[in-house]
Amino acid sequence: MTPAPLAISCGDPAGIGGEVLAAAWRALGAQIPFALIGDAQWAASFGIPVARIAAIEEAAHICARALPVLHRPFAAPPGPGRADPRNAAAVIAAIEEAVALARAGRAGGVVTLPINKKALKDGADFAHPGHTEFLAHLDGAARSVMMLMGPAMRVVPVTIHMPLAQVSHALTGALLTETARIVHGALIRDFAIAAPRIAVAGLNPHAGEGGMMGREEIEIIAPALDGLRAEGMDIAGPLPADTMFHPPARARWDAALCMYHDQALIPIKTLDFDRGVNATLGLSFVRTSPDHGTAYDIAGRGVASPLSLIEAIRAARAMAIARAGHPAGHPAGHPIAAA
């Protein structure tokens, strides 16, 4: 079964989203059908042909010659690098519409362009910490998980945006267990990996060195992993984080669970900064995004790299194929290879 076209939400029109989307359409429009939910005039300002459509299904026949757009006008003309809270409602509505299309099966997945949370808060009282939490709210999911992936690896931070001093207090066996179950299920469903291998980092140097450098591994992490192994998971750890990411070590796992934000993101951004993709796991639909923000400082200058968005679109398509049980579903490695 061929997945439906992807729905791309416009994100903050003052950022680099429009220019990287234009470049992504040039690169992928003839290969992967997708449609923008946003302002058609804004999209056309980036020098690509645009076609207004009435239904996302039309994108399958149009995307090769023009960017299909479900036209939803902005309240104010966007200015590069200048956040405008007047457009907040339209940005939020685009995300909501993309999710509704995916949940209804009319879109194969959702790819979100970057947002500015302060602009959304100022203009529409946006109450969520970010995209991930808002998408879980729209989907009615109890919890979602952020995965960062690139050609070399997939990593998941168990705790995310919090001061390092709070990590050991936030880390619990229940949190680690729930995260591992979501990741395990997603590797099977979204990446077509029949028997996932998961590596889990320790929190402390040398994974605690038997309790000499911290007891979280002994008291929290190891018991949780023992429980997961009893469920049948192939899960290794707790492992010293400083020896998990060289090539021979990476060959032994399909995804790595890390205890805090930088422990996960430093390796992937060091190895391939431009092609990282953010995927939200645990939802009823596929969602990816480029692994960067609005980049107001370079918006409108034509220097932003579109590679992360290109990879996010490819990854969403591959994940949708895997969910559909298509034989081209990605058997191993980076999902982009299957797109």
Describe the structure.
The chain has 339 residues and is α/β, with parallel strands linked by helices. It has 2 domains: 1-144 and 281-339, Isopropylmalate Dehydrogenase, CATH 3.40.718; 152-271, 3-Layer(aba) Sandwich (Isopropylmalate Dehydrogenase). 37% of the residues lie in helices and 16% in strands. The chain has helices spanning 17-28, 40-44, 59-62, 88-103, 117-124, 131-139, 164-170, 173-189, 216-230, 247-250, 261-271, 307-323, and strands at residues 6-9, 34-38, 50-52, 67-71, 110-112, 145-149, 154-157, 197-201, 234-239, 255-258, 277-281, 287-290. It has a 12-stranded mixed beta sheet with strand order 3-4-2-1-5-12-11-6-7-10-8-9, with helices on both faces. Strand 11 and strand 12 (287-290) form a beta hairpin. Helix 1 crosses helix 12 (307-323) and helix 4 crosses helix 5. The longest helix has 17 residues, at 173-189. The radius of gyration is 20 Å and the shape is globular. The two termini are 14 Å apart. Residues 326-339 have low confidence and may be disordered.
SSE layout:
Elements lengths: L5 E4 L7 H12 L5 E5 L1 H5 L5 E3 L6 H4 L4 E5 L16 H16 L6 E3 L4 H8 L6 H9 L5 E5 L4 E4 L6 H7 L2 H17 L7 E5 L14 H15 L3 E6 L7 H4 L4 E4 L2 H11 L5 E5 L5 E4 L16 H17 L16
Parallel strand pairs: 1-2, 1-5, 2-4, 3-4, 5-12, 7-10, 8-9, 8-10
Antiparallel strand pairs: 6-7, 6-11, 11-12
Helix pairs in contact: 1-12, 4-5, 8-9
